[in-house]
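Entry type: protein chain
Record version: 2
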Amino acid sequence: MVNSFSLFIRRQFRRLVINRRMESANDVQALLMRAARSGSVQSVKQALEFGIDVDALSNDQWTALMAASQEGHTDVVELLLANKANVDTKRPKGATALLIACFHGHVGAVRALLASGAAIELATDQGFTPLMTASLNDHTDVVELLLANKASVDTQRPNGDTALYIACQFGQVGSVRALLASGAAINSTDDTVCAVLTAALENGHTEVVELLLAAKTSLVDWTLEKGSQGTVALGRHLKEKLKEASKTAGNDSAIAGCWRGVDKQLLAYEGESLLLIKLADTARVVGFLKRAINTALGVLHLLGSPDGISWHQALLREREDRVVFFEALLADDERMAREMGDEQQQLEVLTLLKHGLERYGDVLNPRELDVMSAVFDAIVRYAEVVVAAIPQWFAISKAEWSRAGASLVDEGEEVCVRDASFLAMLNHPNVRKFYGACHIAKAFVIHEESYALDSRGATWSYLLGCAHGLAYVHEQGLVHRGLSVNHLLRSYTSKKGLLSGMGLVHRQDAGRDLTEADAVRGRKSRSPEITYHANDPSVSSYILAFGLAIFDLLAITHEIGVTASPDESYKEKRERVDVARERVRQQPTEQLPATQTDYVKEAEWDLLLGMCAADPATRTNMEDVVYQVGILAQQENIGHSSTTKAPDTSSATVEDVRLYEIQTLGMTLRETLHEADELCSELETFRDVNRAIYARLVDVYEQLESTRTPLSASLVECFSLILLRFYIMLEKSILGGDSIVASTCAAQTVSGKNYSMHHDIDRLIYNSSVLERTSEVHRWRPTWEQARQRQQKAMQTILENPSSALRQLESDTKRSEAVALMQFSARGYGGISSLGSTTLLTQLGGISAEILPQWFVPAHQVELRDHIADGSFGAVYCGEWLGTDVVVKQVLTDQENKENRAQFRQEVDVWFSLNHEHLIKLYGACHEGRPFFVCEWASQGTILSFVKGFDRRTAWRLLRDAAKGLQHLHDHGIVHGDLKGNNILVSDDIAKLADFGLSIIASREEVPASGDEGALGAFRWKAPECLMGARPTFASDIYSFGMCIIEVLTGKFPWGNSIPDEAVRHNVTQEKLIPGRPEDFSDAEWDLVTRMCSFDPELRINAGAVVNCAANVANNA
């Protein structure tokens, strides 16, 4: 039966023939195209009989043959070919009929075109051949047909991609299998094989990886017995079991999530082609697999069962087979030599072997340790290569951290080691957090995940973070070689502006001993003072570079914010912005334009003019830069765009300023000034800087007092707030009772606070119509600079002769604190390593001292604010550290006890090393004087308050987040010990575990391990063994987390809010009960809780199982 569309086509042809409308050639061609697309052979015949050119192009450059090939109408394709259609005609970007048929997977059309001689290797302008096109879309039948017709598997696109690489990159299993069957790339170089493996690994295509690994017994021409690659594999049994269980349970099940997690973690290991490097990774992989097995057994209800035991036995057999394999390798000198590779590879293997044994070796059995040691010794003997001590920062994968990024160091080992050495010493909330680095093979640095500000637009809040970071780096005596927009970043997790620490050097070395890589970095600098001369460039040169980078960022942000035309698509906009970004990166601004650009506001332009002044002597200093960028950030946040002088507009007034009282102090302004005067006299160390502030405040108050008309209430309030800040700062300094060393070390911080107050007074005067700055006291900068120079000289004197200062202190505690403060100050005054901790310690003349830890935060850098709570460990306060809102936790511990002190430092070392998005970040701590922690501020409170008003799915999502944090702790050997709802906090809509570091304080040996204290907190969350006096363990954490689930989902304490503690203890320890099942709990929810809260710790699931089960419940809630 002929369809209606074909009938329409025929009628149109007849109409054209009858009317002889030969001038309508376009109409006729359009009808041919429609006939070809419809698949009507008869209509196409009529069109051809009518005399239409078979190769005529439509308005959009299609031929009828292309149209029929796209739709897969084989009969029409054959008809057109029989009428001499040109088989290789190209569209504007190079697509032919064959390429089009391959793209859409039409086997019949492809076969017909090939039979007519279509060029099988004719590629598009982008280099895609028909085989690549079919492989990209996984049209396996087409791929096999092209291969049967001798399509080349080795043809490469301009970027080097082959058909196999493309298929691996996009996970096209059928195409990969067909290409491998034809021999694609299997006989190629190792680099080619590694490239396709990497393509599959990076995109998570597990089945493709398995196909590639199975294609040869080895990917490096290994010639031992067949199956050697399988012999050295680990986790085969586990993966098979997980695959079977996942197929039974379904893709959305908890066990399927577990399987995907195991696959992802093992991808890099399985894809490694060098056997000795694979051996070096043994300990890490074994540790992971042991945890993964326990996770899977927990999810599958197999803990303690014979089946569960058999899973661990299977892993043990795999490990034994592996040992036998490597023992055979060691006995074959020729094969061993081949596996060692060149000198660079030998050094890499030795370094990784040593790192693996030192970091993870405790999970290995004696035979595995013997084999790894024997391989290490064999390489040393053969190659005569010596491996130095592995740096503390050495790491091999960013997978060890959550939300981590990695940056390649193209300049190689020397620059990587230098960068890592500096980065390891930096600790500031606005300097990108450094996690580790690998300086062997392809060098890279691991850091917190971030993105460049020029990719999404810069705000002044982000730039303020960068400015804080840059000021800190300069205080450490460091500068960047080639500061640019690449160094200005935003953190994914903290949402703050960050400074990259890549490319740092001592300021005095910035122009000396340049490597070739350093020279390149220098040429990219914005500052000609840095680029072309100055062996010891001043910090002002880098302020210029920072200013020019800001200008470029404003230009890019403008591009991001505007639309070129109403019809501009998102893709077109991104392309336009990318062009602007690339232009800036390749040709950064070297000098500000002569006039202000339309996208830069007046206040912004004034800042840039000061930063980029031609004369370095008149250039804005770093303190001013931070302050002015802070003002712009404030104005941005409240929607203001100008700092132009304006009269006070508030309608409220103060009739008599003499009667105005500061409520928190209960004193008038005059009384407060009198008290401040007395405090300034008592603070001898800071007299110069404090008296300058005091004099200015007195002058402003006297102007206010002498004004005859009523004053604006907002003006008086602003003055009172500055005065209050000044008074509180003085009072805290008096209460501190610091030694001369502590006071001198704190002077820079005090000076910085006073600098900010001077600016606030300037703004108060500038924005008021009743205040004047004619008095000499308002020329504060020279006095402030002189005072700062005296403070720096005093500090330098102490650092040059520390023993003299220490002998003036009476107690060991004061001396220990002073040594720590001097070491901390030495980092800034002499640079991080030009006068570092080790140098200082050698000058102490027998006084006992310890190397200062990286996490040390001196008390004078932390400003305490509101008191939040008290706990068994101490007190909790809101606070500020280096411009960042923080939580400060003062802890109760006897630091004069050597064992306490050592344990405190060891535990803080561990906590500080943890970086996970679901753990509250530790910024630093102080182990001298009254110990305290400085922690991340969780802006959205506890999970208990946050989930109110949200659905159950949200609650479970947050519980899953918290479980991930607990899993990370347990994977690093850390027991939380005090889990309850109040210790699960929320920030940026994700849950984070808190106070895991503080349980170490409450669990010291001097604290009784029985009774109320032994429970380490409220009874309702504690596991039975802890209530009976045992120390917390991983298993007890799981029990406590189960109680947290009940608490979060019900909004009530476990066991309710009224039952006595002793009744809880009896129910848990004697009756072996858990709280009753809440009515609204589903079977899956309650099943999870009961398996977490088994009386027998051995039968509780682990944190990994909790993560997978909680994720599954959240998805189904």
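Comment: Residues 740-766 form the longest helix (27 residues).
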